[in-house]
Design brief:
By secondary structure, this protein is of the alpha/beta class. The site of pyridoxal-5'-phosphate has 13 residues, from helix 6. Pyridoxal-5'-phosphate (PLP) binds next to helix 6.
Length: 395
């Protein structure tokens, strides 16, 4: 018999997966070229050549017994050292190897952090719209997700609602910039305000409130948008990073957590992260991948690919009369549904072979998400289908 919590998780199956699977079935019937699947955030660019070359080189030059063995639970020291130095150079931080814990992607990083700090009934604040897995991740440790309502004006967090949602039970706050699903990048002012509010609330409640910065899209920025490194603004921050999107390696499951020495009890916290990695059963991040990303810290994916798709989609949909949130990062476009019931809108879109994800699954009804990890040629052709869809709603 399955656990009650798993029965519940099965009942709340992912809207993203559902629409993706529907698209796959449809492709079998009418041909893959006729299905316009904007559902999954699966990178559409290739991993950098240097990454593949590094793997080959590692296999050819390293004793396989060493290469594939268990590593320290927090990761290989030389890898963590290189990551710390790279972050210091790029963001003016002051990390050392001891501040870095290698993880199984951002998903693994988030679970490791939550396992480290959340007690049952602790509240964890998330800002809508948010990556829906957060609710499951928080639930894994019997924490309670508390949702700050979306700010539909510019999709920066609603600070008044945020302040009101912080209680003596608040243990952590998760932010995600560039954001999935809105594509919005938080301004420096936003990060400063969150830090100020949390500092005040820490004093008021006499306890630590942690900020968890989930940043797998940190390197995917457009139009000169900037990423502000959160440990510089708030000491009690866990940065959860992943190479899934930045180097197009989602299946390889590699990322890390960075904490600053200025975090409360930072040394013990790092030991706790290492312990959490072990007792969650991850044991360590994949050994070959740790060594490979070490050599690719300054590599970039082909950003122009996403930029082109973003431009075509944003301009095309706007010209058709749709209202879009302008994406400054990641590879998602958030579109305002022309009718209040965006789930019905997604169903209608399916009739035109357009696979979109409803905003309700990101706690933001009235909007739909398009992932533009799709061939550019297909994006161009999809606009003909969107034109028909727009007509349905008199746009
Ligand atoms: C906002 C956000 N956080 C975390 C993840 C998980 O990333 P990873 O593949 O590194 O586990 C994703 C994946 O899509 C994401 O969109």
């Amino acid at each position: 018999m399955l656990s009650k919590s798993m029965e519940k998780a099965l009942g709340n199956s992912s809207a993203i997966r559902e629409v993706f699977e529907y698209g796959q079935k449809l492709a079998q019937e009418i041909g893959e070229e006729n299905v316009f699947d904007f559902s999954l955030g699966n990178p559409a660019t290739r991993a950098p050549k240097k990454f593949d070359e590094t793997i080959i080189n590692l296999i050819q030059t390293t004793d396989s017994l060493k290469l594939h063995s268990y590593t320290d639970n927090s990761g290989i020291a030389a890898v963590r050292e290189s990551i710390a130095a790279n972050l210091n150079e790029r963001f003016g931080t002051d990390f050392e190897a001891g501040n870095i814990t290698m993880t199984v992607g951002a998903g693994g990083a988030l679970n490791t952090v939550l396992r480290t700090i959340v007690d049952p009934e602790d509240e964890v604040i998330v800002f809508a719209p948010f990556f829906s897995e957060y609710v499951h991740y928080i639930g894994n440790y019997y924490g309670v997700p508390v949702i700050v309502k979306p700010n539909l004006t510019n999709f920066q967090p609603d600070m008044e609602d945020f302040k009101g949602k912080i209680t003596s039970k608040t243990k952590a706050v998760i932010i995600n910039t560039p954001n999935n699903p809105s594509g919005v990048v938080y301004k420096e002012e936003t990060i400063k305000q969150i830090a100020e509010i949390l500092s005040e609330k820490q004093k008021e409640f006499g306890k630590e409130i942690y900020l968890i910065s989930d940043e797998p899209y940190r390197e995917l920025l457009y139009d000169g948008a900037k990423h502000y490194f959160v440990t510089k603004y708030y000491d009690n921050t866990f940065v959860c990073y992943s190479f899934s999107k930045s180097l197009s390696l989602p299946g390889e499951r590699i990322g890390y957590i960075a904490v600053s020495n200025r975090m409360a009890d930072s040394k013990r916290t790092s030991v706790a992260l290492k312990t959490a990695t072990r007792i969650l059963g991850f044991v360590n991040a994949p050994s070959l991948m740790q060594l490979a990303v070490k050599e690719c810290l300054n590599e970039k994916t082909d950003l122009t690919y996403y930029e082109t798709n973003r431009k075509i989609l944003l301009e095309g949909l706007t010209q058709l009369g749709f209202t879009c949130v302008k994406p400054e990062g990641a590879f998602y476009l958030f579109l305002k549904s022309p009718i209040e019931d965006e789930i019905a809108f997604c169903e209608k879109a399916k009739e035109y072979n357009l696979m979109l994800v409803h905003g309700t699954s990101f706690a933001c009804p009235g909007y739909v998400r398009l992932s533009y990890c799709v061939a550019t040629e297909k994006i161009k052709r999809s606009l003909e289908q969107f034109a028909k869809l727009a007509k349905e709603y008199g746009l």
